Structure formats: structure tokens, C-alpha cells
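hiii so um. not sure if this is the right channel but i have a protein structure encoded as C-alpha cells and i wanna go backwards to a sequence. like what aa goes where. can anyone help
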């Protein structure tokens, strides 16, 4: 009898920026209680899954050298969890993954989480599991706090450790310039630095989220710019003091506001429109304060199946500093 090998499945998945990140106390499980607003941006990774006798992962694109290809790759955690969930042998899942990175590695833009979300969605299709979005999101949360948002995309309010999501209305498209630093920062270290900086004084930070939600609904980037806030920014800047210069340079170049993305070190600058973003990107890259600059828009959809063809993929706009 002839056995049919399923067609490879490719999923495109976005980066995120936290427009608001309010960090509460550390919980007994080591995680911090968050109130955050995520926005998915048009910097994307692509993950292709295919049936194979030899399991494994290959990683291509910028920063690929610093991404693990073994079991510590978050996309592989997704493979193992979904195999277990569907009664397969997690040690012999019979799949190969190919990851094409467009999201900066260890940049505070949830690149690893994005690949895990993409792997979940792709395998759900490859293995014909027909698991619904809600159940897939529960599995995603077991991999990491940011993984459910990578599945969902758009703009969303996150609570708990960031995994409990409610979609948020964001009118119009916002235009961003993304400044990548020369080296990444590890998330646990940045949370640890925030705890250290806070000492005994406890949480006090970016405040209430409601005004930002109103600005998103109004679609006015000037209003939104005034309300961007990230409690992890002081910790990221403390670990990487050069970020202060990057943040200043973006605003001097004409951005409405700049913010460290999540745990950093990537900085995200909100601009009035696309033309302004292109001008800010060019000026910022000339200022020599970062490794690379990109232009991005948000919100964009979460993980979605594109096709099995990789040809003719547009490259994201890039300006090298
Ligand atoms: C800071 C944020 C903001 O969105 O993103 P990144 O900047 O990493 O992209 C997230 O909270 C990162 O989420 P994620 O990267 O999925 O973290 P996880 O794998 O769940 O946790 C990694 C580690 O980060 C710390 N952590 C994470 C989430 C949270 N609410 N409190 C924490 O203290 C813990 O030390 C934990 O062990
Ligand atoms: N698929 C993946 N892509 C990128 N990094 C990954 C991946 N899987 C595991 N990692 C590890 O996770 C760390 C954090 O990477 P990433 O998710 O890109 O950043 P962040 O947590 O700052 O958003 C990296 O240092 C890398 O070693």
C-alpha cells in the first residue's frame, strides 16, 4: 500500500512589543504578576514543519548562530508537548523543523515564543489534530508566558504572568522603528535586576493601563506616545547603560517616543506615520547607537499558515548602522 507523506506546513509568526508593562510583586512560583498590553509587529519568523525519519531543527537568518538547535529550542518544546498531548512518542515525534529568523534573538520581542507558537499551529495541521484555539493557547502557556500572545497576535491586554489575554481595540495602524542592540539580554536577569533596584520599596511604576487603552481606541499616535511605559526599562538600562543614548537618539531623530521592548535590549520608537518612520530609521542608523534599524507596523495578526512555498518572500526593510 502507498503511504502519503503530508505536505510541509509553513507558519508565519510576528514579534511583539509591550506598549505598557506593569510588573507587580514576585509570586511564590518565581513569576511576577503583570498587567501588560502586547502589540504584534510586522517583523516575523517562519517555521516549516515536515514529516521526517530523522527528527531535528535547522535555523536560518539573522542571529541563527545563537539559537539552540537541540531540545532547549522553544519550538522543540512545542513539538514534545503536542506529541505528548496527541499520544505520540515525544522522543520520536518524526518531524523536522526549519526556522527562518526575522525577529531579533534575545531582544525582548518574543522570538523564541513566536517559534513555539508557530510550531504548535503547524503541527496541529500536519498531524490533523484539529485542536481549537483555546486549547492550543492552554498548551502554549505551558511553554512560556508570551507564547499565547504569539498565537493570538493583534493587540491584547495580558494579565497573570502575561498568559491570560483579552483582545484590545486598536484603531488604525501604528508605525514603529526598531533599534537592535549588539548583544541580547536574558529575560530572568532583567526581572532579577528590577527586583534588586526596587529593594524593599516594592512595586511602583508605570501606573494604570486604562488611559493607554483609550489612546489605542482613538488611533492617535501622539496620544499613545505619551502613555507608553515599561517597568522593565530601568532594569534593562541599568544592565545596558548604552540604551539611554539609543532612546535619546530616536527621539532626537523625530520619533514621538521611545521605549525598551519587554526585557530589552531592543528599543521601539513610535512615529507619526510611515514616512516619518523611514526618516527616523535612516537618521538613527547614522547615529551609530545600535547594530541595525528596522521599520515595522502594528498590529498584525498572530501565527498563521502561509503556504509550503518559501520562494519570493519579501525581505523586511533594513538599514544597517
Ligand atoms: C518580559 C516579557 C514581556 O512580555 O517578554 P520578553 O521581553 O522576554 O520577550 C515576558 O514577561 C517574558 O515572557 P517569557 O519570555 O515567555 O518568559 P517565561 O519563559 O515564561 O519565563 C522566563 C523567566 O522570566 C521571568 N518572568 C517571566 C514572566 C513573568 N510574568 N514574570 C517573570 O518573572 C521568570 O524569571 C521566568 O523564569
Ligand atoms: N526558537 C528560538 N528562537 C530564539 N531564541 C531561542 C529559541 N529557542 C530558544 N531560544 C533561547 O531563548 C533565549 C531568548 O530568546 P528570545 O525568545 O528571542 O528573546 P526574548 O525572551 O528576549 O524575547 C535566547 O537566548 C535563546 O538561547
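sure thing!! here u go:
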Amino acid at each position: 500500500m502507498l503511504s502519503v507523506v503530508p505536505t510541509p506546513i509553513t507558519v508565519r509568526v510576528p514579534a511583539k512589543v509591550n506598549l505598557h508593562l506593569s510588573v507587580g510583586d514576585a509570586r511564590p512560583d518565581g513569576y511576577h504578576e503583570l498587567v501588560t498590553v502586547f502589540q504584534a509587529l510586522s517583523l516575523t519568523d517562519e517555521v516549516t514543519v515536515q514529516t521526517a525519519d530523522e527528527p531535528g531543527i535547522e535555523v536560518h537568518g539573522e542571529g541563527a548562530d545563537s539559537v539552540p538547535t537541540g531540545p532547549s529550542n522553544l519550538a522543540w518544546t512545542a513539538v514534545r508537548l503536542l506529541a505528548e498531548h496527541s499520544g505520540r512518542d515525544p522522543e520520536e515525534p518524526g518531524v523536522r523543523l526549519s526556522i527562518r529568523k526575522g525577529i531579533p534573538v534575545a531582544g525582548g520581542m518574543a522570538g523564541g515564543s513566536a517559534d513555539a507558537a508557530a510550531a504548535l499551529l503547524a503541527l496541529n495541521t500536519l498531524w490533523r489534530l484539529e485542536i481549537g484555539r483555546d486549547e492550543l493557547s492552554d498548551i502554549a502557556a505551558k511553554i512560556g508566558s508570551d507564547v499565547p500572545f504569539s498565537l493570538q497576535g493583534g493587540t491584547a491586554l495580558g494579565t497573570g504572568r502575561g498568559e491570560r489575554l483579552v483582545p484590545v481595540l486598536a484603531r488604525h495602524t501604528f508605525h514603529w522603528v526598531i533599534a537592535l542592540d549588539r548583544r541580547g539580554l536574558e529575560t530572568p536577569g532583567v526581572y532579577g535586576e528590577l527586583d534588586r533596584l526596587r529593594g524593599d520599596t516594592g512595586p511602583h511604576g508605570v501606573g494604570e493601563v486604562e488611559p493607554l487603552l483609550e489612546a489605542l481606541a482613538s488611533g492617535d499616535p501622539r496620544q499613545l506616545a505619551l502613555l507608553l511605559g515599561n517597568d522593565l526599562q530601568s532594569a534593562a538600562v541599568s544592565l545596558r547603560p548604552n540604551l539611554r543614548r539609543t532612546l535619546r537618539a530616536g527621539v532626537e531623530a523625530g520619533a514621538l517616543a521611545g521605549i525598551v521592548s519587554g526585557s530589552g535590549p531592543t528599543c521601539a520608537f513610535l512615529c507619526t506615520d510611515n514616512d516619518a518612520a523611514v526618516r527616523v530609521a535612516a537618521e538613527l542608523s547614522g547615529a551609530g547607537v545600535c547594530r541595525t534599524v528596522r521599520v515595522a507596523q502594528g498590529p498584525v495578526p498572530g501565527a498563521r499558515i502561509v503556504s509550503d512555498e518559501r520562494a519570493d518572500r519579501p525581505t523586511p526593510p533594513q538599514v544597517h548602522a
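oh and The longest helix spans residues 111-126.
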